[in-house]
Amino acid sequence: MKIAAATAALPLLLCAVQAANTPAPAPQQAETQQPSAAEKHIRAGLLVLAKIHDELAKVQDRDTAEAAVPPLMRLGEELTLWAKATAAMQPLSDLERMEMEDRYMPVIKRLNNRIQSQGARIAAAEFYGSRNLPAALVHIVQSTAQ
Q1: Whole-model pTM?
Q2: What's the per-residue H, E or C state across the chain?
Q3: Which of 92, 94, 106, 111 is nearest to 39 (CA)?
Q4: Of 18, 21, 33, 48, which is the most exposed, with the fewest CB atoms less than 10 Å away?
Q5: What is the chain's alpha carbon radius of gyration, rounded to the nearest angstrom?
Q6: What is each CA distance from 84 to 79, 145, 146, in whole angstroms?
């Protein structure tokens, strides 16, 4: 089933977008310093992922599957805008990139695993009979590929 394959690929694509385009904070920020613009940006991307997970976790039947569609469509748009903003940012040094990966890849992986679990659960339930939920998930996958 194409939709199920797309749903399973969602976390991997989200991780790829973030890992490939992730900006980093200044090296060794003191805890009293405000987060850099790059750090705020990556946190915003993590927030979008968390919201996607939360919407998927709410899906328990046909009604909740249908109710999840509009928020998931909006989150797909947010993810697209986030990825475009990431692409427009100034490139990082190798050290900054490595520090960002060390700091955020564990969080990204945990979120992706949770999203993948929710996607697998929903796909196994055949999207609770919703025709719109698979389309919303495909929209999110496509937003990560842009």
Answers
A1: 0.77
A2: CHHHHHHHHHHHHHHHHHHHHCCCCCCCCCCCCCCCHHHHHHHHHHHHHHHHHHHHHHCCCHHHHHHHHHHHHHHHHHHHHHHHHHHHCCCCCHHHHHHHHHHHHHHHHHHHHHHHHHHHHHHHCHHHHCCHHHHHHHHHHHHHHC
A3: 92
A4: 33
A5: 16
A6: 9, 11, 8
